[in-house]
Design goal:
With 97 residues, the protein is mainly alpha-helical. 56% of the residues lie in helices and 5% in strands. A two-stranded antiparallel ribbon has the order 1-2.
Length: 97
């Protein structure tokens, strides 16, 4: 099935590019831009992007590598630790006094 008419990319092309990238680097994060680059093409009008992304998501090899999955949890925890322990808003300091 043709996914992108502007650049003539098929669902088979997308899956083959994903498989090739995953074989070349098991820890790679695969993005639409990397797929276009692997196919030697570039995005044109963007009208195909919803179908392009659905095709990517249907690939078994698109999954984020297990070694990188924990990074998101660590980043979330770091953001939680950045907050102040108490409020420093003037309105809350006045009402507390």
């Amino acid at each position: 099935m043709i996914v992108c008419h502007c650049t003539n990319i098929t669902d088979h092309d997308i899956r083959a590019a994903i498989d090739w990238m995953r074989t070349a680097d098991a820890r790679a994060i695969i993005t639409p831009g990397k797929i276009y680059h692997a196919l030697g093409k570039s995005a044109d009008c963007g009208g195909c992007m919803p179908l392009f992304l659905d095709t990517m998501r249907s690939s078994d090899n698109l999954e984020v590598p297990i070694q990188l999955r924990a990074l998101r949890a660590e980043a979330t925890q770091e953001k939680a630790d950045e907050g102040r322990s108490q409020s420093h808003r003037i309105s809350q300091q006045i009402s507390a006094a």
